[in-house]
Amino acid sequence: MNHSFLQDALLYLGAAILFVPIAKRLGMGSVLGYLLAGITIGPFFLGLVGGGEKDMMHFAEFGVVLMLFLIGLELEPAHFWRMRHLILGSGTAQMGITTLLFVVLFIQVGFDWQAALAVGLALSMSSTAIVLQTLREKGLIQTQSGKSSFAVLLFQDMSVIPVLAALPLLAIATARTAAGESTTFIGGLPGWAQTIALLCAVGAVILSGRFVIVPFLRFIARIHLRELFTASALFIVMAAAYLMELVGLSPALGTFLAGVVLANSEYRHELESDIEPFKGILLGLFFISVGASINFGLILDRPLMIIALLCGVTAIKSVVLFLTGALTRLTFDQNLRFTFSLAQVGEFAFVLFSFMQQLRILSTEWTDTMMGVTAISMTVTPLLLLVNERFILPRFGTPETVEKEADHIDLHHPVILAGFGPFGSTVGRFLRANGVEATILDNDSDRVDMLRKMGFKVFYGDATRVDILKAAGADQAKILIAAIGSPAINQELVDKARQLFPHLEIMVRAENRFDAYDFMDMGLKDIYRETLDTSVRMGIDVLFKLGFRRYSATRAGQNFLKYDEAAMRQLAAHRHDENIYIFNVKEQIRLQEQLLTNDREANPTLNDHAWDSDRFVKPSTDGPGQ
Q1: Do 457 and 574 lie in a common domain?
Q2: pTM: predicted TM-score of the whole model, two decimal places
């Protein structure tokens, strides 16, 4: 490790330590702090790091490579499937309309249609790193604007592969390699062959993930050395990046694919837990590199053109985003946050513009200009969000409260109770009344404060976070009660707990029969529909008030529960075909009624004081238990 590398690393970390707390104190967020740190130490101000923008962009590329692996790791297929309508609808509208408008704009500027289309596709991307980091810091991931932003970003991330595959085809009429110039493996191939080579490389990474990477991780996992597992994951990331670079493709694309492959493996959550401590500093490195890479010399040489491009790109993206948010029925304040969050150009644009220059779709001058506009737009985004929150939302909308830090959990019990709303609190009070203490987690800060005033020991924290579960003692606990109100969050909790803590016995709350079906598909047996027992208990009381003996009514209720649970397991296999499902529901209802009739006939005491349609029988005065 040479002196220059250590010096640059020291300066990067020192600048982050200095600027990020200042930015956070001023309410601007950590992203703007990192960007300002990079601008300050970069070659165009203090000149403390790097020898020019090219060196800085290599640093930024390294940050992108590591960051995109983490993004790919979060693209869980099941989560994508649940959001498929929002992803495809909003993602297609945003990217398609934005690209079309940019094509028209740049053809007017003087680009040919191939270059205009390539640039339009690159500029339509937004920054996954900035948006997700900002949403997490402000606790807005679960808001409507947060979900819509994530859906659009996910669609854009998936679009990078077909866009990269299309660029060589666009370059057929524009790309010319200079005589005697050294090229990469695909550099000298015709456009159609470059596209095939790219698709083959992508396919190789995906197939190796299924047949090589996952078995390799399974072998490493048997050794039971956590640091070796993390090292193996990083080795896979770097190997994928290096192989992509060998064939002349973006190393960022290789690591993104590696992350996607591992997202579909049984080691996804363990990898997230291991790499999470590095995530913040890697993103910080990327943002500092972006700030340091801004070519202020180019801006000073052609300020009007740069400002015009920046304003035009931001305005076009903002208009399309606002219309997209309106189509997905976001409220005005949510739509503003959605619009300002995604109005910048994203980090994938660096990859795409570099590839365009390699293919001779863009000249070096235009590539530097577009990269400058991209970096400046990313720098301006935190300022736009700050203006939105400080000046626009207070007048026109109601912003969400900022999420506070999770509590330090200092108590461990055999039972972990996640979710202490009306359902979970009833379970918790029953257990405590019978001498069983539980470690209680809840993610509603107002409810936690209220429950503490009532005397409950409740910890504030997101139970779906692996570090929170471990802090709550999931490694030693016996039972996890998943009682969170949101079915989607409950499913995420159950999925992570089963992967990372297989010894835990999981008992889960289901909102209704269809949520119960989903949990059954996950292999759970202890599923509790939140309205079932209460509904049957009311039915029992109705029978009692109509003259049934308490014992008879209670036994009828118990039989109904037994038959209904059995019927639900029978119906689960047919729920995806509506006609067959309805037919089977009718059959199960008929069978259930017949079984209950048989029970009454087999036990004559169940017919005591039965309801007579011609007369009302007053309830017995013997009281419960008779």
Answers
A1: no
A2: 0.56
